[in-house]
Amino acid sequence: MPATSRIGHNVPLPERARRIRHHALRMGEVQGQGYIAQALGIADVLAVSYFHAMTYRPEEPEWEGRDRFLLSIGHYAIALYAALVEAGIVPEDEIETYGADDSRLPMSGMAAYTPGMEITGGSLGHGLGIAVGICLGLKRKGSGAFCYTLFSDGELGEGSVWEAALYAGRGGLGNLIGIVDVNDMQADGPAKSVTGFEPLGPKFEAFGWFTQRVDGNDLDALVAAFDRARAHPEPQPRVIICDTRMAKGVPFLEARERNHFLRVEPEEWTRALAIIDEARPS
Asked: Residue ranges of the alpha helices (H) in the chain?
């Protein structure tokens, strides 16, 4: 059985993941749009990150001893907001303000707006480079904190990602844990057909990274991978390559033709929420 949360009450990880999906769908319903397929697909990774692996204080988002979570994929903000709500960093009633004027939850993540949003992830391909700088700073401070960085398969076409990966391996940044969301979809089509980034694992290994590849919707596999990444004894960066399914948890959306931006009809938000709510453990 998957491990339970280290933050707050002893809530099982499947329930944390279900709630993250619920929060994301509620935000999508508010605006009638959002990158919901990606949010549903990455919910399990976020659940394990925030409720198993990471150390932080919900009431003190800028606590110096916290593990950092960097969202390089700025348009995944709806997913991270859902995790921040579930973690108690963002109040749940702010879900209703998603994407509105003066909201702390803009449709693309911005660090100046949202508690717990470490970076502004607008231009894709920058997150890993920022993470390298943060990890160097943490090392010089003697901090034991980790920096988790979520980036996408589509970003692997950016040279800046590989420059950062090369430097991280050369610099022995053992406090860096990269997470790659491989859902094989980007704006120009299937990601594998755009830049041909496979074989991904051997490439990271060649750059000096401790590399694992798992089913990103398997909570047990994710828990084991995150534990191995944190416990890895060698001074080298770690990466967890997560193969995820877009729209995971809502079968009628999973079955829909895969697109970077999934269109959801007004009545379908309620239908999707009902499916997620029915999955609540008894």
From this structure: 13-31, 36-48, 77-87, 127-141, 159-171, 191-194, 200-206, 219-231, 251-254, 266-278
In angstroms, rounded to a whole number, what is the distance separating the alpha carbons of residues 45 and 211? 16
Q: What is the distance of C-alpha 231 from the center of its chain?
A: 20
Render pLDDT for 156-173 as a digit per residue (tens, 0 to 9). Answer: 989 999 999 999 999 999
Q: Are residues 118 and 54 in contact, defined by beta-carbon separation less than 8 angstroms?
A: no
Q: Residues with Cβ < 8 Å from 219, sequence gap 6 or more?
A: 2, 13, 14, 17, 44, 47, 48
DSSP conformational letter for 162: H
Q: What is the pLDDT of residues 87-128, one digit of tens each?
A: 999 999 999 999 999 999 988 889 999 999 999 977 788 999
- The amino acid occupying position 161 is V
Three-state secondary-structure class, residue 276? helix
The CATH superfamily label for domain 13-278 reads Thiamin diphosphate (ThDP)-binding fold, Pyr/PP domains (3.40.50.970)
Identity at 86, one-letter amino acid code: E
Distances (CA, A) of 55 to 5, 8, 24, 183: 11, 12, 23, 27
The residues, ordered by sequence, that sit 6+ positions from 118 with a Cβ below 8 Å of its Cβ are 68, 69, 70, 71, 111
